[in-house]
Amino acid sequence: MRRAEAPSWHEIRAELAIGLPFLAAVIAIAIGFDSGRDLEIGPAIVLVLAYGALSHVRFYAGAGHTVPTQLVFVTMLYTLPTELVPLLVLLGMVVGNLPDYIRGKLHPARALMLPGDAWHAVGPALVLLAAGAVDPVGGDWIWLLPALFAQFGIELVVSAVRSKLALDIPLRDQLRALEWVWLVDALLTPAGVLAAIASVDRPYAFLLVLPLALLLTVFARERNERLEQALELGGAYRGIAMLLGDLLEDADEYTGGDHTRGVVALSLEVADELGLDHRERHNVELAALLHDIGKIVIPTEIINRPGPLDEREWELMKTHTVEGQRMLDRVGGPLADIGRIVRASHERWDGGGYPDGLRGETIPREAAVVAACDAFNAMTTDRSYRSARSPQAALDELRAHAGEQFAPDVVEAIVRVIARELIDAADASGVPVADGRRLPASELAQAGIDVSSSSPSASSLS
Questions:
Q1: Which segments of 5-143 does DSSP mark as H helices, in order?
Q2: What are the transmembrane regions (predicted)?
Q3: With bands split at pLDDT 50, 70 and 90, how would you rate the model's confidence at 383?
Q4: DSSP 386
Q5: Which residues have a Cβ under 8 Å from the Cβ of 433 and sit 6 or more positions away?
Q6: Dihedral through CA 237, CA 238, CA 241, CA 243, nearest 10?
Q7: Cβ count near 117 (within 10 Å)
């Protein structure tokens, strides 16, 4: 969704639920507390403008971004009337977004989000006012620690409310983004305190920290450009991987077609089930796509042999993982790392696999995921020399070889993923459907899948 579009009703509802309490809270703070400090118009205007400008200096990390506004925010807490700071922070956000509203980059209705974004200013202001610690000189600065905790706690609550009412982003992913925000805010807070201390006798001394803000702007622009270049390069490597996958599909319709797509889809679900990080998940995706790429060099008559291979043919077939790594090494870059995983995609947990006889935890984590998912997909797909097995039979086979051929925790993850898929496919009568046929409840029970609940039974994890 483009930011220039009007917010949806769900977004409006969420922002009203967050923003209206904010306005009530800041009005109550402004009326109920008195820091004893007069509002000086000149410094207030400069700080509000500086806050608005810094709100556009974005450092991207993971799925989110942060802005260095803490540098100015802390200065505002100690140099302006503390009870008015939350309102002035909101004003700074409005001023900072005005150019985007005028140019049409932001829809004006998205101003409804600003009160929710300004909630972070309420906690510190309330803590400092309640403690009477609004003078940066002396020991009052010690109250910044509980003030920061209040700031971070409120940001967490606001994120949880937005996650519940409007966003499709899981709260866990938002927490990862907030960790980066909190780190930057904590590191910039001391500089804001020093600027406030310098401004006690010289009202505009805080201007000395603005060159630091300019430096952060330069660093942010350079870092964002590097991230864009990295994303473009990553897209190019992904395109190369897709092209290699297409070549494999042309060479062997089974290996490069439905089989590969099925292995990729299941591998990604299992990676999420295991909680792999973003890099590991990306590696799993590309390795699942290219795990059979080395078969391009294997003669077609061996690939499509309807019966078992003889010893010479089998030894030749086993070279496809080494050939796959060799091809990806020639491409280089991130695909060279994928080559290492492709090479290990037929290793066994007990050390009896090929080509290197790796054992247990020495097998790359991503390779263990791809190997088990590859086996499950192969068992549940029609081949030229046999018919597909049922999901139950395939799961039984994986369990029988967990700890020998396959990583035990990967097998357990596959069981949980397949259980959910079968349950999600249930019709109104509650009878699951899979592979184009209905699976009797007794068959699912034998597989350790409890169709009466949304998760596998305990026996499925044993």
A1: 9-32, 41-54, 70-79, 85-103, 113-117, 122-131
A2: 12-33, 39-59, 71-95, 141-160, 180-198, 204-220
A3: low
A4: B
A5: 422, 425, 426, 427, 439
A6: -100
A7: 18
Q: What CATH number does the domain located at 252-461 have?
A: 1.10.3210.10
Helices of type H across 118-209: 122-131, 144-165, 171-198
Q: Which residue has the higher pLDDT, 210 or 250?
A: 210
Q: How far apart are CA 291 and CA 289, in angstroms?
A: 6
Q: pLDDT band for 84, please (50, 70, 90 cuts).
A: very high
Beta strands in 354-441 (DSSP E): 433-434, 437-438
| Residue spans per domain, the chain | 9-228, 252-461
CA nearest to 51, candidates 196, 213, 199? 213
Q: Which residue has the tokens 């938002």?
A: 174
Mean pLDDT of 16-32: 92
Closest to 283 measured CA to CA, from 303, 302, 267: 267
Of 362, 359, 366, 358, nearest to 342 by C-alpha is: 366
pLDDT of res. 4: 64
Task: Write the CATH number of the domain with boundaries 9-228.
Answer: 1.10.1760.20
Instruction: Let me know: does 324 contact 226? Beta carbons within 8 Å.
Output: no
Contact assessment for residue 178 and residue 119, using Cβ atoms and an 8 Å cutoff: no
The answer to whether 30 and 62 have CB atoms below 8 angstroms apart is: no
Q: Strands 437-438, 64-66: parallel, antiparallel or unpaired by DSSP?
A: unpaired
Bridge pairing between strands 433-434 and 437-438: antiparallel
Q: Tell me the three state secondary structure of residue 64.
A: strand
Q: Among 134-143, 301-310, 382-391, 420-429, where is mean pLDDT lowest? A: 420-429
Element (H, E) at 59: strand 59-61
Structure token pair of residue 53: 């400008």
CB contact at 8 A, 36 and 128: no
Tens digit of each residue's pLDDT (9 = 90 or more) over 318-354 = 888 998 888 888 877 777 888 899 999 999 999 999 9
Neighbours of 184 (CB within 10 A): 19
pLDDT value at position 386? 64
Other CB atoms closer than 10 Å to residue 361's CB: what's the count? Answer: 10
